[in-house]
Write a structure and sequence with these properties.
The protein has 169 residues and is α/β, with parallel strands linked by helices. It has six helices and seven strands, in the order E-H-E-H-E-H-E-H-H-E-H-E-E.
Length: 169
């Protein structure tokens, strides 16, 4: 099938746009949530997102083994939304994982997928240079990951103020 990559800033409307792509596809809907509930505020956000999606979605919570989870649920007649890559990247960094290897494995999987994939991420490279080493490493990892996904994706959108700008496809 195809992989669609959706980038944008926080609260730009990228998740709503991604969910609409999956909903209007008419395919069996799967959602891979990469976020972790580190605190009560994040738990509330996760619960709100689940409630807004409703029961027509199958949710898979996977903070680390993203490529393996994609491979396990991949199949024709399915649409899989992954939200979001920057949370996944944060999890990998916090666990000391090999980010280059994990990113390469994900990028290699995308063109082989049978499902329609929709992948969401926060664009973090448009601001000032971060003031600390970890934040700079995160920005650099995110930039490289985004380039790899965009190269493998058939369609790429940038969302700002709820408006999609098609960049590829």
């Amino acid at each position: 099938m195809t992989a669609t990559f959706i980038l944008g800033g926080a609260r730009s409307g990228k998740s709503r746009f991604a969910e609409n792509l999956v909903t209007t596809s008419g395919l069996d809907r799967h959602y891979i949530a990469t976020g972790r509930a580190w605190d009560e505020e994040m738990r509330a956000r996760i619960d709100q997102h689940k409630a807004e999606r409703g029961p027509s979605w199958t949710t898979h919570e996977e903070p680390l083994a993203l490529t393996e989870t994609l491979a396990a649920i991949d199949g024709e007649g399915r649409a899989i939304l992954v939200d979001c890559m920057t949370l996944w990247l944060t999890n990998l960094m916090m666990e000391g994982r090999d980010i280059a290897a994990q990113s390469a494995a994900l990028a290699a999987f995308l063109p082989q997928a049978k499902a329609q994939l929709v992948i969401v991420s926060n664009e973090v490279g448009l601001g000032i240079v971060p003031e600390n080493r970890m934040a700079r490493e995160f920005r650099d990892h995110a930039g490289r990951l985004h380039q790899m996904i965009a190269a493998s994706a058939s369609d790429v959108y940038f969302i700002a103020a709820g408006l999609p700008l098609k960049m590829k496809g």
